[in-house]
Amino acid sequence: MAAAAVAVPLAILLGLQLHALVQLQETATATQRTALRAYTKAVLRGLEDFYRAKARAALAVPAQSLRDPSPEPLAAHFAAQDGDGVRLFFALAFDAGGPAPLRFFAADGRALALPEAAPEARAARVAAAPWQLVAEEGGRLEAASSVVSEQLPAHRVIARPILDADGRPIGVAGLVIDEAFVRERYLPAAIDAERARLPEPLRAGVETEVRTGLDDAGRGAAAEAGDEVELPFRFVFSDWALAVRGRLMSAEAWARRSLRINLGLSLLMTAMLLAALGLALRSAARATQLSQMKTEFVSNVSHELRTPLASIRVFGEFLRLGRVTDPEKVREYGEYIEAESGRLTQLVNNLLDFSRIDSGRRSFRFEDVDLARAAAETLQALDVRLRQGGFRASLRAPDEPLPPIWADRAAVGQVLTNLLDNALKYSGAPREVEIELAREAGCVAISVSDRGPGIDPAEQERIFERFYRIGSGLVHDAKGSGLGLAIVRHVVEAHGGSVSVRSRPGEGSTFTVRWPIHGAA
């Protein structure tokens, strides 16, 4: 049902997308041609803006610099400009007494000496002629604006009049365009930059050509034919045109390609949504399972607390009321109270240790520990419980003394107590528990074996998880907090050791803990 709830809306979405793609067939080619026109206009507009901005800054020559006979003020002004795209700067002051000399400067501001017959000088004179005529007639201009002169195509000029306070032209400042810069540096960079903004299907198939030397008939309005768009240059290079050819897809090819892309994306989205739904359901199931495990944990802990408390209360009440006067019985009841108090202490310690482990605050104090002695002390502490339950426990150790382990003494006792508690809790009719110590490579191993119902192999790894309880069988019927083995694994691994279990259903279980020898960890 969950998968259908996701798949049906997506199928509807796919159908709507298919309908939209069919309608797109009528406009696909026009859309591509519009993109090519925008691409071409952007390249041309960029070149126009480049030279308009350069002329506005470089040709705003102060009137006093123009009238100064020394070239230094003009040289300083032109040196402060960006010389990219400029071959030469020039300045001309109008003199009522006759023609004034042209002054030329390199792109870096250096003064140059060019003969009056140089083609650059002729181009500059041609560009300045209209304003010189206005000056000779005493005319005024409302504003100074830049003008392009392309009478000599090899020496294209941008010129700007210099006006006095009354608007009379007193001279001209100009620049000669560096055509090689435009062809070799500016246009390739601008074309690459604008191509990167084209839609991906068009980008790889675009070819750009600069057409030069066009006459009036060939450089009129924009021309479009088939898969080509041609637009004339503006402001400068008016006899040039930029032709752009693109391998345009047919409407059907565009629609099929778009359909494949959208279908693939939609299917991917469907898969991702289904995967997310599966993860959400899995997380919900785990949360439910964890909640159930915690509920069982509270129930089991309550039972674990209630049983020893009831025994302590009963035996304490007998002693308080004086119903037991025989010294042997008093000692026996005291042993029972002590044993049940030990069980409560162990349970509380497990709960406190679980809290410390969960918050990362569990710490250890390492020292040399005799594992055989620790095992004997743990058995002694559980002696009353062993006798109460009718258990027989045996401790076997090798003839040669075992080397000490490097561990926290209280943590070792806790691990052994938890393992023995499990063995007593889950043992069957043969109420026997065996403890065996052995020397292994770099460690001392201690094994605790019982004759209980055993553990299914599929669950042997999970029994070390917190709160985990075996699903069925006699093991599940025994009460417990579900924390003992989780704490055992945490403590042992924190010491650099390991814990393992060997068990078969109906044949009991053996838990083996390996502790590093001092110096081997």
Q: Explain this structure to me?
A:
This protein is of the alpha+beta class and 521 residues long. It is built from 14 helices and 17 strands. It has helices spanning 2-24, 28-58, 63-67, 72-79, 119-136, 179-195, 200-203, 251-321, 327-359, 371-381, 383-389, 409-426, 474-477, 484-494; strands at 86-93, 103-106, 111-112, 147-149, 157-163, 169-177, 206-211, 223-225, 228-232, 241-246, 366-369, 392-396, 405-408, 432-440, 443-450, 498-503, 509-516. The strands form four sheets. A six-stranded antiparallel sheet has the order 3-2-1-6-5-4. It is elongated, with a radius of gyration of 48 Å. The two termini are 55 Å apart. The mean pLDDT is 80.
Would you spell out the secondary-structure blueprint of this structure?
Layout: H1 2-24, H2 28-58, H3 63-67, H4 72-79, E1 86-93, E2 103-106, E3 111-112, H5 119-136, E4 147-149, E5 157-163, E6 169-177, H6 179-195, H7 200-203, E7 206-211, E8 223-225, E9 228-232, E10 241-246, H8 251-321, H9 327-359, E11 366-369, H10 371-381, H11 383-389, E12 392-396, E13 405-408, H12 409-426, E14 432-440, E15 443-450, H13 474-477, H14 484-494, E16 498-503, E17 509-516
Parallel strand pairs: 12-14
Antiparallel strand pairs: 1-2, 1-6, 2-3, 4-5, 5-6, 7-10, 8-9, 9-10, 11-13, 14-15, 15-17, 16-17
Helix pairs in contact: 1-8, 2-6, 8-9, 10-12, 12-14
